[in-house]
Specification:
Layout (H helix, E strand, L loop, with lengths): L4 E12 L2 E14 L5 E4 L11 E4 L4 H35 L2
Antiparallel strand pairs: 1-2, 3-4
């Protein structure tokens, strides 16, 4: 059966005029989740073993949804941070006028 795959991300930094700046994100590696397969007793299934059990993928939909929601919230937090920084810089520039 299919094994759940877990990506590992790495931030890319680039050197711009002597400063380190964010250059994005890349997938550093992908590893397979070694957790056990889910087994279901179904002797009529074509993939059943000699004892009548079928091994199903170790993908947990609830876990995947939680990971997706966490990624979405992290993205929203970063976008809010960028917008706040832009507003602060604009306000600072307005002080000098």
């Amino acid at each position: 059966p299919y094994r759940r795959k877990v990506p590992v991300f790495q931030e890319l930094l680039r050197n711009v005029q002597g400063r380190q700046e964010n250059g994005g994100v890349v997938v550093k590696s992908i590893y397979e989740d070694k957790s056990e397969f889910r087994t279901v007793y179904d002797p009529t299934h074509p993939d059943a073993d000699e004892n009548g059990y079928v091994r199903l993928p170790n993908v947990n939909i609830v876990r995947e949804m939680v990971d997706m929601i966490n990624a979405q919230r992290a993205y929203e937090a970063n976008a809010t941070s960028i917008n706040t920084t832009k507003a602060m810089i604009t306000s600072a520039l307005q002080i000098g006028r």
